[in-house]
Design goal:
This is ATPase. GO terms for molecular function: ATP binding; ATP hydrolysis activity. InterPro entries: ATPase_AAA-3, CbbQ/NirQ/NorQ/GpvN, ChlI/MoxR_AAA_lid, P-loop_NTPase. The structure is a single chain. It contains 12 helices and 13 strands. It is α/β, with parallel strands linked by helices. It has 2 domains: 223 residues, Rossmann fold (3-Layer(aba) Sandwich); 93 residues, Orthogonal Bundle (Helicase, Ruva Protein, domain 3). A hairpin with a 2-residue loop joins strand 7 and strand 8. The longest helix has 34 residues. It is globular, with a radius of gyration of 22 Å. It starts with a helix and ends in an 8-residue tail after the last helix.
Amino acid sequence: MEEANADHQAPDQESGKIAAACDVLRRLASSVGQQVIGRDDVIELVVIALMADGHVLLEDFPGSGKTTLAKALGETIIDDRADSDKAADEVPIAAFRRVQFTPDLLPADVTGSAIFDAGSNAFQFRFGPVFTHVLLADEINRTSPKVQSALLEAMGEKQVTVDNRTYPLNDLFFVIATQNPLDLVGTYPLPTPQLDRFLFKITMSHIDRDAELSVLDTWQSRRSPQKRIQVSRQHVLAARQIIDKQVYIADSVKQCLVDISRQIRDDDRVIQGNSTRSLVLLLPALQVRAAMCGRDYVNADDIDFLLPHVLGHRVELAPGAGSFDAVLKDCMKPAMEALARSTMKPAA
């Protein structure tokens, strides 16, 4: 009898966990929205990427609020553990770090380096800016490929190796990289392997008139200290685990993603299709988006919303092929129609 009651209560308990995870997502978005006006769509994608353990590449114009967005997100996440709860050898982690990438930057300027300490007569590792929750890699295409590649291990494996010793990064290590889509003089285009490390590529446009007026009206109040919504690091990690375990992905959804990818790769208008890794990175993002919408299962709306941002920087079109959006729409149509005829909800 007790077991029956426990089984009967399980769905309510699981829905409560998802509701708690959704609350963390809303608080993150609300906190960033206090500082960044008119960018609700970008904030939503950035929060999805953070919770899905991905990274974001922004194409934007100077002065569009990218630094404010990244700093607001970093300062929203706090580590509220007591000092006694932290390991003695734990790597110090900052909330937010910004690196301005330039042609003369060195890999050690990003990862850190060993510095000789005369007092101890030994080399001590000085931690670089990658040891943070949120890293803003500003104008990442302005630095050399050698420095760009220094981020590959950090983004892919959440660790850096210096002088044959590996240092772990924080579980929430999150990169927001930017590049200017217009000023290409003296830049080093990101190679395909590094582009593939970014979950989303987001192309930002200028905010609308009302939002721009609101920015001018509130700039002084937003500069002054104010009470900000904050979320603990532990709650963010817990929400990530809840979404991973409780949001259902049907086999038909996975089949749809594979069929779309194969259709793209076989299309005559495409020179290079997307990798399998892009689909692996997409799955947790679909789960987070479903949770944001109050669902415990992924559906076609989630795919339609996220797929352009996931594939836009991975698919290379042939000259004269037209727009990427048109090609993607054509390739998605058969698989999405098949998905619409299937059942995506978890079994009761």
